Structure formats: C-alpha cells, structure tokens
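Internal ticket - ligand job 502, iron/sulfur cluster:
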Amino acid sequence: MPDPNGFLRYERRLPARRPVAVRITDWREVYPSAGEELIREQATRCMDCGIPFCHDGCPLGNRIPDWNDLVRTGSWDAAVESLHATNNFPEFTGRLCPAPCEAACVLGLGGQQPVTIKQVEVEIADAAVARGGLNPRPVPASTGRSVAVVGSGPAGLAAAQQLARAGHAVTVYERDDAIGGLLRYGIPDFKLEKQHIDRRLAQLAAEGVQFRTGVNVGVDVTAEELRARHDAVLLACGALQGRDTPETPGRPLRGVHQAMTHLVAANRVVAAAGDGRPAPAVLPDGTPIDAAGKHVVIIGGGDTAADCLGVAHRQGAAGVHQLDLYPEPPHGRDAERDPWPTWPWVLRNYPAHEEGGERVFAVAVQEFVDDGTGQVKGVRIAEVTVERRDGRRIVTALPGSERELPADLVLLAIGFEGTEEQPLLAQFGVTRNARGAVDARPDWQTDADGVFVAGDMHRGASLIVWAIAEGRAAAAAIHSYLGGVGDLPAPVDPARQPLAAR
Ligand SMILES: Cc1cc2nc3c(=O)[nH]c(=O)nc-3n(C[C@H](O)[C@H](O)[C@H](O)COP(=O)(O)OP(=O)(O)OC[C@H]3O[C@@H](n4cnc5c(N)ncnc54)[C@H](O)[C@@H]3O)c2cc1C
Ligand code: SF4
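stdout (structure tokens):
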C-alpha cells in the first residue's frame, strides 16, 4: 500500500547537475545518479491515485505507480521486472524522455509538483545493470520464421528484441557503421553515454538478434533480395530529412549547415576518442566543421538546437545565439490553452541552456551575410509576428527591427520533413504521404503486404518513447502475421496520438 501522504512530507527534488564549469570541459552525462535515499524519498511522493493518468501520458503505458511503490520499499529486483514488462530500454527513456507522464501526474492538478517519474525510471534502469547486469532471455525454441528490421534506432531495436524473444530469427540492417540510430551519432554523449547502447546490444545479440552494419537497404541489398531472405520486413528508417531554407539569401555560403551534420561530426569525434582514435570534426566530404573560437548562430528551438548549443560550448565557441521564430513561451502551464493532463506549451530549459549562449525569440533570418569570399560572417534578423491563417503560417517582419548578429558557423535546426526519399521506398512499393511519413494500416503493414513500418518513419520526427512503443506494437503485429502463438504487447495503434484537449 503506497504512502498516501508522501507528497505532503516531501518536496519534489532532483539530483544536482554536474557544475557547468566542469561539465563543459568533457562530454560525460550532465546528471549524476540520485542516490538511493533521494530516489526512495521521491518515489514515496507517488500516492497511487487510483486513476493513474501518467499511464495515458506515457505511450508505453509504463506501470508507474507500481514501480514507484517497489522503489519506495526498496524492492529493486521487482521494480526492474515491472519496468521492463512495458519498456525495453528504460535507460534511454529515463535519460532522454521529456516525460509527458509527469505533465499528466495527478499531483499537478492540485498545484503540487509532479512525481520525478523519469528520474525514478533511470535509477531503476541503472539498478538493473548494477545488480547483475542486463540478463539475456533467449528463447528455447525457434519458430523457424525470420524477420528483417531495417534501421537500428529505438523503434527497430525494440521490435527486434520483442520478435527475438518470441522465437523469430531477427536480422537488423543498418546503413551506418554502428547500431543505435539517432541515439548513436545524433544525440550527444552529454545526454546519453554510449555504453548504455552497447550494453543493450550485447543483450540483444545474446538473445539471437543478428546485426548487419554498413548495409544500405535499397542500395547494397535490394528489397527483393531482402523479401526473399525473410518472411516479413519492418521498416524503421527514421525521419531524417532535415528541413532547409533554400529561399533565404546567402544559404549557399560556406559555414551554413544542417544541424545534424554538425552533431554527427562532433559525436563521431567523441566516439573515436573513446576508441583511442583521435579524429577531427569533419563532414563526410572532409570539410572541417567545428565551433572552436567561432560565433555560432543556431536556428531553431527544439531538442536538436539545444544539442547543438551544448556541443558548441564543449568545442569552445566564442559565443552562441539560438534563434526561435516564436515568442518566448510561458514559464508555467496555460490551463486555458493546455489543460491538465495534456502536454503544455511552456519554456523548456535544457541543461545546455545553463551553459551559456543567448536565446532570441520571435525573430526570423532575413539573410546570411557574405564576408566577400563566400563564407558567412553574419546573420541579418528581423523581429516577427507569426499567425495561422487558413492552416498556413504567416510570418510578418516588423519594419525597422532588423539587426545583424556575428556568425562564422550557422546551424539549421528547424525540424525534419519526414523520412528521406531513398531507393528502398520504391523498391518496396511504399510512398511518403504529405508529411513525408509512411502510412500504416491498422495492423502496421504499409501498402506492401508483409512490409511493416514503425517509429519516426511512420509518425514523423517524434520521441524515443514513441519509437519504442511503435516498435513493440509493430512486433506484435508481425508476430501475429507470422502465425506466432499468443499475443505480444501492443501499447499503441498506428492512429494513437498524444493526450490533447482538441
Ligand atoms: C539531435 C536530436 C536529439 C534528440 N533528442 C531527443 C531526446 O532528448 N529525447 C527524445 O525522446 N527524443 C529525442 N530525439 C528524437 C529521437 O531521437 C527519435 O524520435 C528516435 O530516435 C526515432 O527512432 P527511430 O528508431 O524511429 O529512428 P532513428 O533513431 O532515426 O533510426 C533510424 C535508422 O535507420 C537507418 N536507416 C535509414 N535508411 C536505411 C536504409 N536504407 N538501410 C539501412 N538503414 C537505414 C538510419 O541510418 C538510422 O540509424 C532527438 C532527435 C534528434 C535529431
Ligand atoms: S518513458 Fe517517458 S513518458 Fe513513459 S514513464 Fe518514462 S519518462 Fe514517463
């Protein structure tokens, strides 16, 4: 029986982040462990309210009050079991999820601070490693059926683990040189150190999942060949088509890049250093890309922009501006606009924002300014208003508000336009919809029979928790398509959307 008064006795508390002056000198994670005493105290704040809206806030349907109470009582092994019943990779979500569950916590209704659900989750995930490791669960008998998973991000990996544990032979094909999708080279180590991925991959491998890196499906192996080798195919290729701004004058200048090219180059340097192979930050064509000593302008206000900010400071940028088209959001929930338990539009301060830089809201770039040699030297911005008319976004610059910011490196973090157009799509006979995503039927199959889709490739650029949820659900559908015995858990259906008031 949970403690019904815990939230009255304890305030919400998180562990202190590593000091800024220390953490920007390395690439290690920002948060230290909470420690057992603090995390048991915080888990005690969960009153097991009876109708846990946090379940609906979490796309995985994590059994949050159950494991909060197990942590409260120090029953760590049972907490590990309970958490893994719904989430294949809590060490990823516990570190990286924006925690829509916390926005839906019932404590938020009465003006209280929500339970630190995400922190409890990561502590349970780390306890699993500390208490004997991530033990593999190989199945004794094989079904004799085989599945190809294309793409090794959280969606592909969650599906692979579910299917392998159901007895199917699973091969994950990844075009990159390492497994992990965006977790590997997209998300910096200061948010997710890569040993967490490697530990999980060791578990999956021990459960029978085969990994093939450096295989670009549609180029190195055709769809036809893949279909001949396997009984079903899951496409989990992500939504990596970066939005650009070709109409802005000066876009072709040197020094103006897609944010992902900067992040991937920087993360590869960290990975190489970890392997004892020092390497400079370069683009695939060898062009150097590094923020050291530079004035950096980051355009965009989301996860990608914040990751660029943290990377720029660790590389030694001279100064950083982060530009957002929209006005500064409110600092607390606007209950008229986003009533509890929905995900509110509020100012999100990432740890990277504590590390320096200036955020500029309600501005739009008018021009990337040339230094006369074809290299960017500045960004001319104007204050703007943004409104929606007939479903279209209208951006209006305020006359006389223009000014120039110094910029030697400009990073475009203005979102993604769905999955990339690539040969694999036509070969499998699937098409991108108006959002650039690939539609799924209610059983997760695409227009092509036996070809399933999950994660960002289906949903559009989203979150790790959704990718895992869709990977699990698609695995359940594939298991049923292959005539597997019993049902696998399917936390979401393809039409499921986040909690919303309208
Ligand atoms: C910079 C950045 C930071 C982010 N930070 C967060 C965060 O803090 N929290 C959070 O919840 N979410 C975050 N996200 C979003 C999150 O990373 C994604 O929603 C999630 O990774 C999607 O998982 P996925 O498996 O669908 O695809 P991905 O992780 O994108 O993986 C797709 C994989 O498919 C491979 N692939 C594509 N085509 C082929 C092919 N033809 N053959 C073989 N392989 C192929 C790609 O190389 C890639 O490895 C962030 C995203 C970005 C870009
Ligand atoms: S996965 Fe995200 S939404 Fe679900 S319990 Fe963890 S932090 Fe909350």
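Auto-summary: The chain is about 30% helix and 15% strand. Residues 57-58, 60, 62, 64, 93, 97, 99-101, 117-118, 121, 465 surround iron/sulfur cluster (ligand 2) (CB under 6 Å).
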